[in-house]
């Protein structure tokens, strides 16, 4: 069951703008969540449009004390800061991703790299890393042509669940519209599941 959401962060990663199963399912879920909480705000982030990969300048800026960063370093981290802010603001996160070659699209991996930041979304302690983004709900909607979600060759859903938990988001529901080349009806089953989850 979903709690009432004040801010929903909707992330789409499919390269397809039309005919995308994950886009259809995330739209459906977000629409239903808004019906339940009409005052909620939606932040939309389409990572398929492209995100920069980490480079040496970004790493250097990230590891520089915030009080000592140059204007150039702050600019280098500006997009990452925005993405982190979106994630911190959101009460509910809805991620839609296809499985490309057994894993997430490169653009979604780039998003992960930009939001997984020590002192911002997690911290290191004497007992190990601790996620700082707590009391949030996440839905991860995954579509695939042949890869079974949760199987030994699924490096998408399992990866995202681990990453979200790493930054403190442990309440994660996976919705699978998988192996659609074999069974197209799984799309309808996934759609029904999203409607039930938001009920």
TrEMBL record:
Q: How is the cofactor bound?
A: Binds 1 FMN per subunit.
Per the UniProt record, which EC number(s) apply here?
A: 1.6.5.-, 1.7.1.17
Q: Which cofactor does it need?
A: FMN
Question: Do the record's keywords include NAD?
Answer: yes
* Flavodoxin-like fold domain boundaries: 6-196
Keywords, alphabetical: Flavoprotein, FMN, NAD, Oxidoreductase
Report which reactions are catalysed by this protein.
Answer: 2 a quinone + NADH + H(+) = 2 a 1,4-benzosemiquinone + NAD(+); N,N-dimethyl-1,4-phenylenediamine + anthranilate + 2 NAD(+) = 2-(4-dimethylaminophenyl)diazenylbenzoate + 2 NADH + 2 H(+)
| Stored InterPro entries | Flavodoxin_fold, Flavoprotein-like_sf, FMN-dep_NADH:Q_OxRdtase_AzoR1, NADH:quinone_OxRdtase_FMN_depd
Pfam families for this protein: Flavodoxin_2
Its domain of life reads Bacteria
Q: Binding positions for FMN?
A: 14
Its biological function? Quinone reductase that provides resistance to thiol-specific stress caused by electrophilic quinones. Also exhibits azoreductase activity. Catalyzes the reductive cleavage of the azo bond in aromatic azo compounds to the corresponding amines.
How it assembles, according to the record, is:
Homodimer.
Q: Which HAMAP family match?
A: Azoreductase_type1
Q: Which PANTHER family match?
A: FMN-DEPENDENT NADH-AZOREDUCTASE 1, FMN-DEPENDENT NADH:QUINONE OXIDOREDUCTASE
Family indicated by similarity: Belongs to the azoreductase type 1 family.
Q: What is this protein called?
A: FMN dependent NADH:quinone oxidoreductase
The organism of origin for this protein: Roseibium sediminicola
Where is the organism placed in the taxonomic lineage, from the top? Bacteria, Pseudomonadati, Pseudomonadota, Alphaproteobacteria, Hyphomicrobiales
| Protein encoded by which gene | azoR
